[in-house]
Structures are given as structure tokens and as C-alpha cells.
Amino acid sequence: MGSVLSFPADNSTSRQREMAEEEEDLLDSRDREEDIAKFPYVEFTGQDSITCPTCQGTGCIPTQQVNELVALIPYSDQRLRPQRTKLYVLLSVLLCLLISGLVVFFLFPHSILVDDDGIKVVQVWFDKKNSVVILAITATLRIRNSNFYLVTVTSLTTQVQYMNTVVGTQQVTNVSSIQPLSDKLVNFTVKAELGGPFSYVYFSCTFPKAKVHNVLIFMRTWVKLSYMGRAAQSTLERYRYVDCSTNFTASQELLPLSPSA
């Protein structure tokens, strides 16, 4: 005779109840989380609890402490990894180099050229009693300023020599100022007296039958310049023929010497 095996009905019923209870517990936990989220902050202090030192149990940070508190963020936070850092550093370096180059270009001292523009006027006086010839020589200098700032001519000194002997000297201070990137003509006058051991010049200049009354003189001029707190000096040296018989002459250049700064 055979026997029939049958599973008890209690097992299937208990499983269904367990599943129903789990679903209810899950729903209850979700409802509990939503209720907690809606529930305001409350400091639950007990025997082993510590009140929050930042908010003092209020759940809010005082306005007075906003600039005093430090927030901690994870090391992997994206804010700690700024983008295009190398590009910004490269642009900053290039900008600094550009600004430095412009400053050097505009403030670096450029050349200041001082050229002799010739003798413009010669006035002649004769001292018949002492056999002396007096020459008032007016000459012109052309000064070129190649800088981007003002240049001041602080002093101008001129010396006239005849036969290696100084016969006239003139010094002028606070002469003029030359604007940036411009040039200017500066006039000066120096007196020279030819007498004593050179009394023969008087007879040569006043001899009526002589067709030429030229006197060879040597002129040396020092020009002192000031710019950007610095001082410089330029020197001009030149031989010239001067007609000592009339009050005006056009000078004839001879043996020019290069200016030295």
C-alpha cells in the first residue's frame, strides 16, 4: 500500500505573514525618516551626550562667528583641484615680463646728442690804446633728447683758445629744458680778448690793405645734463676761422673733432 506525503499548511502561511511584516516594517521606516526630516532640530542631552560647541544646541550658527569658523571638506573635493592653474601661472609670468620690458624701455636712458650748429654772430671792438681786439662770439648748440622724459641742461661752459692760450671763458647755469623725444637750439655768447702778447692781431685785423682778416680760434664747450636723478656731460671741441674785421661773419668750419660724452 502506498502513502501520500503532504506539506503542512502552517509553513506557507507563516512565510506569507513574515513577508507582510517586512513590508510593513519597511513602510514604517520610510515614514519614520520623513517624519524625522520634518522634525525640527532638538538637542537631546543625556548622561553621555555633549552639547554641540558650534551651535550651542540651537541648530544655527551665530552670525558673529561666521568669519571665525572653519569648514572641513574632503581631500577629494573638486574645489581643491582648480582648473587651468598652469595656464593662469603662464599668463601671469608673461604679463609680468611684458610690464617689466615696457618699464625698462621707457625708463632706460637713451642717448642725448649735442651737436655744434655753428657760429651765428661775431661782434668786434677795437681798443686802439692797448692794441686789443675784443670778440663777442655767439654760437648755437643743437641738443636732441631721445628719451621719454624731460632732460635739463644744468650748465654750459665755453672756453676760447688762441695759440694754446685761453683768451675767453663763459659759464651759464640753468640753461634750458628739452622735452621728451624732441630737440632744441641753445644759444650762448662768449667774449675773447686778443691783446698783450697777441697785440699783432690788432694790426692784422685793422690793416686796411689786407684782404683777409681771419683769426683761427679753438673752442671747447662742456654741456652738463640732468635727467631722472642722473647727471651726464658732453664735450664739444672745434677749430674755427673768425673774421675779426666786421661785426658779423659766417664761420667756416675746420678740423672738426667728434663730441665725447
Provide structural commentary.
- By secondary structure, the protein is of the alpha+beta class.
- The chain has helices at residues 9-38, 85-107, 200-206; strands at 112-127, 132-145, 151-162, 165-178, 182-194, 214-227, 230-243, 252-256.
- Helices cover 23% and strands 39% of the residues.
- A hairpin with an 8-residue loop joins strand 7 and strand 8 (252-256).
Strand numbers in spatial order across the main sheet:
4-3-6-7-8
**Mean pLDDT rating:** 80
Terminal CA distance reads 140 Å
Class of secondary structure makeup: alpha+beta
Largest sheet: 5 strands, antiparallel
Radius of gyration: 51 Å
How would you describe this structure in keywords?
alpha+beta; disordered C terminus; rod-shaped; 261 residues; 5-stranded antiparallel β-sheet; disordered N terminus; 3-stranded antiparallel β-sheet; 8 strands
Secondary structure elements and pairings:
Layout: H1 9-38, H2 85-107, E1 112-127, E2 132-145, E3 151-162, E4 165-178, E5 182-194, H3 200-206, E6 214-227, E7 230-243, E8 252-256
Question: Brief description of this entry?
Answer:
This protein has 261 residues and is an alpha+beta fold. It is built from 3 helices and 8 strands, in the order ααβββββαβββ.
